[in-house]
């Protein structure tokens, strides 16, 4: 069984309420929000204001992906807005440990994001404190990209690593997912 996260990055904001309803009607299980700061990635997307808006538009869980250099200031407000889960990048300056701990302490599920070039083994020190690992299947920071070749092999390798160490973390993927490539990603271990 997999979970479909509907990214609002692709939504038409002139009619966001309608777009959210359409995603839910199409089977979306979770509302997925990318927050980008223009520093960690060159793009700037949403701030916590959109999280507040989404909380009013949907009863579905909110999943926030922080593509920011310093995630710590975001965490208290995300917890206040009843965000269920928050993911931060392995690659952030100073590493993800403080942010992952703060997410868990705030009562949210903690996720670690690995960029395409980051090896799966980078997640090893954090595996037992994670609810999910988010593998980027595109280069972070831009919507509309094509699913990267080799992503399914990376998913399978991570699934093997999680099984070997007894981690219950879920593998989530982000980017370029289509009805055509989803079955193979799921078969490789994405959930």
Which outline best applies?
A: globular
Low-pLDDT segments = none
Compute the number of helices: 6
User: How are the strands of the biggest sheet laid out side by side?
Assistant: 1-2-3-4-5-6-7
Topology pattern, helix = H, strand = E? EHEHEHEHEEHEH
Major beta-sheet overview: 7 strands, parallel
* Number of beta strands: 7
Mean pLDDT over the full residue set: 94
Q: Which structural class do the helices and strands define?
A: alpha/beta
Q: What integer value in Å does the Rg equal?
A: 16 Å
Q: What share of residues is helical?
A: 25-40%
Terminal Cα span: 7 Å
Strand content: 15-25%
Quaternary form:
single chain
Word description of this protein:
By secondary structure, the chain is an alpha/beta fold. The protein contains 6 helices and 7 strands. The protein has a 7-stranded parallel β-sheet. Helix 5 (151-165) links the parallel strand 6 (132-136) and strand 7 (170-174). It starts with a strand and ends with a helix. The model has no long low-confidence stretch (mean pLDDT 94).
């Amino acid at each position: 069984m997999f979970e479909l996260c509907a990214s609002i990055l692709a939504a038409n904001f002139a009619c966001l309420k309608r777009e959210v309803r359409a995603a839910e009607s199409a089977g979306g299980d979770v509302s997925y929000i990318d927050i980008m700061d223009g520093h960690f990635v060159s793009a700037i997307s949403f701030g916590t204001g959109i999280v507040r808006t989404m909380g009013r538009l949907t009863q579905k869980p909110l999943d926030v992906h922080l593509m920011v250099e310093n995630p710590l200031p975001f965490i208290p407000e995300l917890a206040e807005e009843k965000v269920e889960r928050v993911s931060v990048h392995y690659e952030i300056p100073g590493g993800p440990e403080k942010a992952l701990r703060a997410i868990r302490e705030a009562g949210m599920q903690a996720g670690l994001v690995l960029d395409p070039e980051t090896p799966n083994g980078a997640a090893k020190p954090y595996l037992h404190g994670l609810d999910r690992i988010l593998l980027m299947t595109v280069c972070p920071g831009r919507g509309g990209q094509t699913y990267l070749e080799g992503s399914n092999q990376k998913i399978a390798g991570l699934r093997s690593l999680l099984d070997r160490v007894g981690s219950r973390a879920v593998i989530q993927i982000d980017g370029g997912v289509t009805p055509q490539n989803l079955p193979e990603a799921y078969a490789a271990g994405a959930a």
